[in-house]
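User: I'm writing a tutorial on reading structure tokens. Could you give me a worked example: one chain, its sequence, then its tokens, then a sentence or two explaining what the tokens reveal?
Assistant: Sure. Here is the example chain.
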Amino acid sequence: MKKLFARSLMASAIALAAVGCGSSSSGGGAAATGETISGTASAPGGSVAAFEHKNAFEIALSYVVTPVAAAITGLEPVPGATVELIRVDDTGTQIGDVIATTATSITGDYTLTLPAGVNLAGNLIVRITGANGTEMRAQVVEKEVDITPVSEFVLSKFIDQGADLDNLTTASVVKLSGQVEEFDLTAGVDMSTMLAALEKEAGVFVENQIDLIESTPADASLIASLAGDYRSSALDFGLHDDDQQYGTGTFSVDVYQSNFTFADGGNGLVSITINGEEADWANLSGSDLNNGNINLYYVAESDSEVETFTSPITSTGVIAIESTFEEDVDGDYGWRTYPSLFSLQKVKDKNIFVLLGGEAEVRYATIDTNGDNIKDAVDPSQKEGDEVFKSFEVFLKKPAAMDPANLDGTFGRVYLGAFLNSNGSIELESELNTLSFDGAAKDVDISAASRKAVNRNSSGTVNYASDQTQAEPGLPVVTAPDGDIVSIKGAATDGFINDSYDFITFADAGGTNGSDANFSKTLAIKLPSTAPVVSGKNYRLMFLGVGFDGTELLLSSTQFNTILAMSSNTAGTLTGKSSTVYKPSLSGEVTPESGESINLSATVNIAQDGATTITLPEGNKTFLLEGFINGEGSLGIFRTSYGANGSAEELGLAALIEVTE
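And here are its predicted structure tokens:
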């Protein structure tokens, strides 16, 4: 098992400096008279004839994950196709006449001479057109330009995202195309369905990358204001399968905490140092159909490795950390991991960041390639399964010299917990209540909590329950100068508060290997004395949910650009996209469903102390957010539930962060 966030950062230790934020410099500049561009046109085999103007596309793609990295295999050259050089506007519409033409050779190669005064740029396009008018295009930002499904996919994404094509950097276009190649698709017989497969597997990643490319870099003052020592705390869920080979699968839970240092990295970059990590994780593996083969593996571990790298930050407070394609070998298994972009959203005027993480891996058997009896490489012919992870993580800047009196006032609390048992049962629970700290007395009153629970047993039977916990007044609290909440009522805790003493997070985990394991995440925000104003504001919804529908297990989240636009203090509209991964049973195959559009009307109720309920009906079911918004109206924390008739089949955590977009 690999921790999602810290593992990806340590493995990549890279920045987007080569791409940069913003679009102030264009890709090419003027080309000298007589210079040429060249490349190869290639397409899925069944589409080649179409580009030769013989017949239309037929839909018949078979998607598999290939055994080799960083290439889309199965493409064939397109001979005898007319290649046209054109300019387009930001909607992809041709501007003016065709600038120049040529044709591809029998091997699909082409060479085209640039007329005088034609400069390389993101809006200079080479295209070939099929018999039914379908195009395959590529941006001419350098002199070697291949025309492929990837080049068409990337250009279409730039257009869909409203990018300024003329001012895209060469590095941004070339880099993004290369990253899409790393998603390892095997071409089928049809172009259009291959584009659909690219959308399914790489669409979210590409959209997030384009948002970063088009963003404005942060100025030095923002970077200076956030510099300092941070702690992070994450709750992570995963689904694994075995490609239907052995009749087994896994549901995983992971809690991990890390120490970070953020500093000015120069040139608009943040220098990030990871100072080790502590983690607890568990896998519940087996089959719903065979209780005898269900196993629970639990472990607690720590890592003291220190790693430093730089990442860009945008003017809207998004730190974008990229992980590249990577391959890891560990004994009998090896993993290949798709590229990911981890976007940390800063809360306005506070040193708080929230991250929704996501990662997909392919698991292989390993082999010994050099005869030393040590397995050192993946075996491409022995794919063992897929693993998908989703996480919710917060980063809080540490106080410089906290006094116990600083932990004072009433905080709204939301909580999500997960319990795994070797008998095959999984229980989720969420809670909502308040924590009233007395800084002088150094104690806390914990109010009775509203509790929701969803339980799934090994036969796939799902039960929902709701009740209340007991209040616990006057519990002694011990803190440390760095914001650590050392203990409550004499029991050690893993909690900490931020540098402005208005946000707390706790993590808890424990278990017995082979028997049971428990994990939980708590968020708490200081409550105002008057209701916050949210009318006219836009909020990024960062949501992670876990649920059961009969035997089905699912993980769901919002994509980064999911926005709640508040038209008043009581109403708003949620728009964006969701990402869902599910398995039909514990041993079922992992299936992603990304990019489902969201357009829901929200009814909002905000109390005087910031307690907030947001109701979003969706057909016969309701997406419900219950939580709290701070006095500035810049941050809200929520427990979530989704279901029909007042029950829940899915529980989760969410944050609303005020943004300017």
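What the tokens reveal: The first helix runs from residue 4 to 12. The two ends are 37 Å apart (CA to CA).
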